[in-house]
Structure prediction request, 427 residues.
Amino acid sequence: MHNNTFHLLGIGLICVIIGAGLLLAMVGRELAPGGGLTARGRWLLATGLGTGVIAFAAKLALILFILARPQWLVAPSIALANHRVEPPPPALYDTPASGRYVWQALPLQAPSPAENPWSTAKAALGERLFHDRRLSADGRVACADCHALQRHAGADGRPRAIGIHQQQGPRNTPTVWNAAFAPALFWDARADSLEAQALGPLFNPKEMGLGDPAELEQWVRDDGDYRREFAAAFGPQSPIDLVHIARAIAAYERTLITPQSPYDRFVRGEQGALTPAQLRGMALFAEVGCVQCHSGANFSDGTRRLFPANPTPFDARYRLHEEANRTWRVPSLRNVARTAPYFHNGAVATLEEAVRVMASAQLALPLAGQAPQPPLWSEAEQALAAPARAPLDDAQVADLVAFLHALTGDALQSGESELVGLARHQE
Ligand code: HEC
Ligand code: HEC
Prediction:
């Protein structure tokens, strides 16, 4: 039982004792023989008054008790949900008619789901699990080896991930920084929460390669340090199981956010936070339509889009059709200047080239110095869909790239400790 409950029960008990004391005192003094009542009359009156006091005390104790534990009366999810009043998401365009895009800064804290409220103890436990190589089949691969928080800004700098026994996986490693803000995780958006995502790599044969979930649970239970940290994070009665392992890791990942970057500081009103090239790139980013997909504070609308949407010479060069899957989750562009190589297959080495691929494959923008692309739509359809656009020249590509550099978090820019996010996160 909760400590508070004991306190309140204590207060109730004291009230009851005071009530009983008053009763006896009244019988002994106030209603003394001088009052002219018979002994029976005194007892009757005193019992009437006394039980009134006792009943009042009992009610008081009950009310205090209920106030302290509302979830005993209301179903837990409802009671907890009531404590989380989410602000409505801000509008992306100031009015639908104006079409003026509203730039948003990243919130200073990542949201936590009702069933996994954030705490320092949970995040500290999650941090240990995230860095623990013993959680892999060969004892050599931790989450942090593929998601190197500082050195590779939460990714691994490789085209495709390399897991246990040096096996190469099929896809590029996305950064874990700001994953807390993504409504859908993985390149194909197959996980909908950090909790759901966290167990994937542990049992993926090419990543950490663990075999039996029960074995992992037992191993963690057998470790004295982990046992203590689980008790601190979830309470001594809570089981040490996959659900709680995932919750701790997710709580830690919610500290890995970069809400301060030159871009965010600019949006929050710091003039001079962006260079002239970055400002030009920012305007261009909205004007040419990158914001159709890379929108909102995290530069991703969380949807899955056809990629490439238009056929371009890049398809063959970067083997963009290699996988049967053709739709990919729009990735966040935060810290993207630090997470080369790019795209789901890691085939593009530079940010300049990634921007060219996007402009051409996703927006059908002609690129200066390149042969015009074969039209995907009929001329009538094109006339309906988009006005003819001037080709994007190299200077404009450079401005877009400069703007993307402004999305690198100050915490990564200055090489501050990995715990920056954790320290910033206030309970
Ligand atoms: C062998 C390298 C490797 C290891 C080890 C690894 N990951 Fe990953 N991680 C990846 C790759 C590759 C993806 C993308 C997979 C996909 O989309 O199919 C990914 C995706 C993710 C994502 C989703 C990011 C996004 O934006 O969609 C998160 C979060 C994540 N990993 C966290 C973790 C955690 C937590 C661990 C440890 C329990 C871990 N990873 C271990 C390589 C790794
Ligand atoms: C129609 C939606 C759409 C539009 C418009 C769009 N993108 Fe993308 N972008 C995506 C998708 C989807 C991906 C992931 C593709 C993949 O890797 O498979 C992506 C990936 C990227 C990447 C690589 C990210 C990484 O971590 O590998 C960059 C950089 C990028 N976009 C920049 C831009 C820029 C700049 C523009 C405007 C010129 C733009 N995008 C317009 C949907 C879009």
